[in-house]
Design a protein that fits this description.
Layout (H helix, E strand, L loop, with lengths): L1 E2 L13 H6 L1 E2 L1 H16 L11 H9 L12 H10 L10 H26 L1
Antiparallel strand pairs: 1-2
């Protein structure tokens, strides 16, 4: 657990609520930020919470709001994002479990590509 010193500045829209509000940073707050990174990747760099100020985003998050799924986002990826954005840090996935999920996704995708290559030959 890392506690930010008073006056520390950080990117609020990428920061977990417990870190933004109380300065409590941990690997679980990093997982929240990872979920926002996935959102950025899927949207090709769109700023999170695009129509909200930092304070509006935090207020909305506290009352249960989560960014909607981007149009081109597969539902299983959006589910991962939602898990990362759980308000309770202890209910967020660990980086180890996220690595396992993405390993499985890449293996499945790679197998699909290989099958497609065999079919096209």
């Amino acid at each position: 657990m890392y506690e930010a010193s008073q006056g520390s500045r950080f990117p609020v829209k990428w920061t977990a609520p417990e870190a933004a509000l109380w300065g409590k940073f941990s690997t679980k707050s990093d997982v929240w930020s990872f979920g926002v990174l996935i959102y950025e990747i899927i949207t090709r760099g769109q700023v999170p919470f695009p129509s909200m100020s930092n304070s509006e985003a935090l207020q909305n998050i506290e009352t249960g709001y989560r960014m909607p799924s981007p149009k081109q986002c597969p539902s299983y990826i959006y589910e991962i994002m939602l898990q990362c954005w759980n308000l309770r840090p202890e209910h967020r996935p660990t980086f180890a479990s996220l690595r396992d999920v993405f390993d499985d996704l890449f293996i499945t995708a790679e197998s699909g590509y290989r099958a497609a290559e065999c079919i096209s030959r």
